[in-house]
Amino acid sequence: MNVFKLKINHIRTGLFHLLKAAKLLPNNIILPHQLDFAFSVAKRLDEHRELIEEIEKHTGYFSSENGRWSKNHAITQDDYLIKLFTLRYNVEPSEEHFDKLGLYVRERPHVLKAQE
Q1: Distance CA 10, CA 4 (A)
Q2: Distance from CA of residue 12 to its chain's centroid?
Q3: How many other C-beta atoms lie within 10 A of the C-beta of residue 48?
Q4: Using an 8 Å Cβ cutoff, are 56 and 109 in contact?
Q5: pLDDT per residue over 34-82, tens digit each?
Q6: Which has more confidence, 16 or 82?
Q7: CB contact at 8 A, 31 and 13
Q8: How far apart are the first and last CA of the chain?
Q9: Are 115 and 67 within 8 A, CB to CB?
Q10: What is the rounded CA–CA span in Å between residue 26 and residue 2?
């Protein structure tokens, strides 16, 4: 990130905090980096996908009839994490963007792609 962008981000952050302190912004408005609570949104998306892959690899649960509801839930959760990723980084998750952002997020598990 160049110096100009760093200065602009610093000014934006300062202005945001000033407006929040003056109660000119609603309490539910946050800065995008605040979505990275405990771990980054990218890491949460990657770990969610890793968990689904491991469960499927060891049990076949998501591709079974018994796992149908859970599979739909996992797809919805993946979609939600994609939305958070997009809000956080201002780009859709893709290999091109991962390289530019210096992030790693594995592809959506095959078992979750079957229903797309």
Answers
A1: 10
A2: 22
A3: 20
A4: yes
A5: 878 788 999 999 999 999 999 999 999 999 999 999 999 999 999 999 9
A6: 82
A7: yes
A8: 36
A9: no
A10: 31
Tokens of 86: 């997009």
Q: Look up tokens 């998501």; give the residue.
A: 62
> 82 with 93: CB under 8 angstroms?
yes
- Token pair of 100, please? 């530019």
Residues in the chain: 116
Contact 105, 99 (CB under 8 A): no
Instruction: Specify the residue for token string 């509801």.
Output: 69
* Encoded tokens for 99: 């390289």
- Angle, CA 48 vertex, CA 36 and CA 57 arms, to 5°: 160
DSSP state of 23: T
Assigned token pair, 29: 């408005």
DSSP one-letter code for 107: P
